[in-house]
Each structure stands twice: as C-alpha cells, then as structure tokens.
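Notes from hallway chat w/ T.B., transcribed later so I don't forget. T.B. wanted the structure written out for a chain they're using in a teaching module, and asked if we could keep both sequence and structure tokens in one place. Agreed to drop them here.
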Amino acid sequence: MDNTASGSLPTSSPPWFRQTKAFETPSRGRALWQLVNSFAVFLSSWILAVVLWKVGLGYPWILPLIIVAGLSFVRIFIVFHDCCHESYFRSKKANAFWGWIIGILTYTPYLEWRKDHGIHHATTSNLDLRGVGDIWTLTLDEYSSAGFWMRLWYRVYRNPLFLFLTAPPVLFILLQRFPRKGLTKKDRLNAHLTSLAVVSLALAIGFFLGWDVLFFIHLPIFYVTSVVGVWLFYVQHQFDPGYWEHAEGWTSWKAALVGSSHYKLPKLLQWISGNIGFHHIHHLRPRIPNYNLERCYKAVKELQLPHPLTFWKSFSALTLHIWDEKSQRLMSFKQVRLAGCRF
C-alpha cells in the first residue's frame, strides 16, 4: 500500500482540511441506530447460541453463531472507541456512560484506555515516542544491536500465532486487569471497578446459565472479537511501505495520510468494523464519529488516496516485522537475514 497522493503533503491546513470539520458533528439518530442494530445482532446470536447449546446441539451448529456474535462485538467496540474520543454523542455524559458500559462488556477500562489511546494518536509513527497504545516495532539498527534474548522475544512477539491468536485474549482478559503505572487515582479506580464488574458478570453467567456457557459460548465469542480487533489495529499502521520518523522530522499529516492505512473492506466487513478502515481520516480528524467517516471520505476527494489497502493484500502485512530507516520500509525477518544482518 502506498498512501502518498499525487503532489506533496501539506505542511499547514489546506482548504480541503477545513471541509472535514463539518463531519465532526455527532448525530443522535445515527448513534442510537448503530447501538440498536449492533446489540440486536450480538444479543440475538448470543442468546440463540446459548439456547442451541442447552438443547444439546453440537458445536458445528453453534460455531457460526459464535463467530457472528464475536464479529458484531467488534462493531460495538468501535462505539466504545468513539466514546473514548468523545465523538460518538454530543453529550460528554452519554459518551462516558456508554464508554463505561461497553468497557465492562469488552473487559476494557474506559478511562485508562481513553488516555492510552490519546497517547497513541499523539505519538503514532514517532520513533522516539513508542511504547503506549501501539504494536511493538523495532528498527533494523535496534534489532541488530539487541541481545539474543531480546531478538528471540521480538521474533516470538511478531509471530502471527502469538500476536493474533494468543496475545489478544491475554491482553483483554488478563493484562487489562492491572492498571499501568502513571495513572491518576481516578483512572486506577475506574480500572479496578471495571475489573470487579467483569468478574461479577462472568460469575453471573456461570452461576445462572452454567459454567459451560461461560467457557464454551461467552469466552469463545470474546476470543473472536479480540483476535479481529487486534488484527484491525495491526493493519492500520503496519503495512508496506508505512511511515516512521524521529520526533524532529515527524508530522501529524504524514502520520495520518502515510502512516495510517485506508483499509478498503467489502461492505459487510466495513459494517462489522464500524468504518474504522478509513483510518487515515480518523487520525486526521479523531473527533469524526465512525458513522460519518465514509461520508467525509466521499465528500473530500483529497482523502481518496490512490492505493488503499485491500482485504487480500492486507495479509502481506503478516510478513512485515522491522522498520528500516534507510529504505523507509518495513522489512520481513527473511529480508533481514538475507541482508546479512544479525538475526
């Protein structure tokens, strides 16, 4: 994927950028309708899966419902994401309320995630400010000079089996139960209350519906959600050629238009992912709610970048591991090895 449009990128706000401001205005009708249709799909598939399980139907009958519920939960998480940006509703209280509720359902503390995600927006693609809300990415020089154990751990971390199939549930279910250092007392309290609510919900499902429902229906649904969610986050910033720069040369324009993908998905997958594929627009204007992103894309031709990341092409990102500052591209471990670098 090459996000570079014809001509140079702007260094200050051009007229077309001001056009995007209008799409920041939330719509109560669109917001509520998205909540209704997202929860309708999720709850109906969740309930039907539980009923079919209880009457003794085999997993092959239930697995499609688990997948549908898990995918619809991704769409619900995008609502949470927008609430963290305070863009989903006009009301701050409404954003906080739904952020808190969906945060519990998705095992994610609202205040901590809102803060970390804000840091992600302020530092994405900045080589000097990595470490919060991003995918661990080393430069070629950093990898080559690292010790054996660090290189081994990085290769494990970047292995798709670990990054997409193992790490997601560990992150959401386990790691997010422990607030990171540097948070305020209010943030830590919110994180602990979220964890208390998460455990209470799990216990309620186990006691009232059965532990089999928790372990064979509910948690597998969330497993699907977490895997797809981490994949979406990954391809939003890990693609070829991509963009990473040190602080002195970093610009928010390039971080948005070159370092953030336009992930062009089929309409059904676009619906499931809450339009987050228009990620270059989201980083340009984080206050645009997801239900306005496509409208903004269609209205402002300068945002219609020439080479979007397509669904099938996105899987090539699985082989991208290390940022080469000289070539300004992400490299695979194989390329690093063939280049004669320390592996």
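Follow-up for T.B.: Residues 240 and 259 are 10 Å apart (CA to CA). Might be a good example for the class.
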